[in-house]
Amino acid sequence: MHPYIAVPATVALVWRAYSRNSLTPAGLVVAALTAVVHALHPWSAFFALLVVFFLCGTAVTKVKHDVKARLTLSASGSSGGEGPRTHIQVFANSLVASVLILLHYRQLLARDKSGDASQGCWPYGSDLLVVGIVSNYAAVAADTFSSELGILSKGRPRLLTSWNFREVPPGTNGGITFWGTMAGFLGASTIALTSVLLLPFCPIGLTSRTGKLFGDYQPGLQGGSGWGLREKAAWVLAITIWGGLGSLLDSVLGGCFQASVVDTRTGKVIEGNGGEKVGMLRSLQARLTESA
Prior knowledge:
The protein has 292 residues and is mainly α. It is 57% helix and 4% strand.
């Protein structure tokens, strides 16, 4: 990615997070480093995915924030809501993608002895690292959308890991709603659509000026390496589905390994600041503060 685009874009991204109090100081540092790693790659698509995820995630977090704050309690004793995202949450959302981006960049450099990894296109059926990068952001976007919008559902969440899908309070780890699940697929689709617009797909029948075919750029669904409308539509559908399923898998893991602390007096879930684990002592302190 060209430095004259990457540098101001990174500065703008970090400044927006700072001015909106979206990230803690440590979170800002990790976010800046993450943006740098994404900008190192010659394809602009991956940096764009990071930006789209951050902007869309911030937007859905702000939707009816005051209403969501009343649905849960904070471990500090105030109204609910996790507050600014921490460096751990930034790592959780982007570390896998950052590692895959560095590996793919190295792969491109190895293919091009001249060292210019920005040339060429992405053939159909190659480079699973690209699939992993896009799928990572589709899954975290789906999880963010489902969490931030699903909690506003009028129906009570159902615990995905219980045998009878019993009702649980809003904000419970492992709890899902129909509209929250649909919001998750919407979030995944924003990443899928961004990727299909910006990834350097090899078009069908790509030829040189002399009319010589560069490679087997027949439609990918017909055994070739080219991306036509059908291949791109299938890509968008697949990324959207896998992103949504990734969000559901996150709910299953949350229900199995992240116990939710519920205030017995109000019936509300107690959330830790920045998504941290809530201990029983802190939950007791929250109850005493709330009742004071």
